[in-house]
Amino acid sequence: MIVRLSALGLLLYVLGFALFAVSLATPAGAGKTDAVVVLTGGKGRIERGIELMRDKEAKRMLISGADPSVTRGDLARRLGPKSRPILRCCVDLGSESVDTRSNAEETRRWMEQQGYSSLRLVTSDWHMRRASYEFHQDLPEATIIEDAVATRPSLFMLFAEYNKYLLRRAALWLDI
């Protein structure tokens, strides 16, 4: 009986991983929100946020998890001169967060200060499911549009992210 239950558990875990791997988030279509929130840590995320601001999809952008030593000038040099007006007027650098959970907490405080109720969450496709879960936990009343940056994650990266996602869901379910 224990062997059968273990085999069933393993089968569900493997099927869950397969579903997780083949159903990565995609970029969102048009849709205005109060804010764009970009989670640092992956290629193309900030660029996607700037593109959304250029297209006037939001009023303001928060780059959550920015290194405290990074300035708007650093970003302008990296992103090019076309980004300068947007960086000057409409971008806030959040350096309080160190992980996905604290990204959501930092964003909640920022959204409350700004009086915003909707956001477009920008992160990598492989990270979106867990990030979205954290943001829905911290901002249950907010409208959240998932806008994933397409990547080519390795099998190891997907496996690690799937396990983080499962562990976080379990921790919340067990209230720990």
UniProtKB/TrEMBL annotation:
Transmembrane segments: none
CDD domains given in the database record: YdcF-like
Domain of life of the source: Bacteria
Domain (DUF218): residue spans on this chain: 34-138
Pfam families linked to this entry: DUF218 (PF02698)
Name of protein: DUF218 domain-containing protein
Species of origin: Sphingomonas swuensis
Organism taxonomic ancestry: Bacteria, Pseudomonadati, Pseudomonadota, Alphaproteobacteria, Sphingomonadales
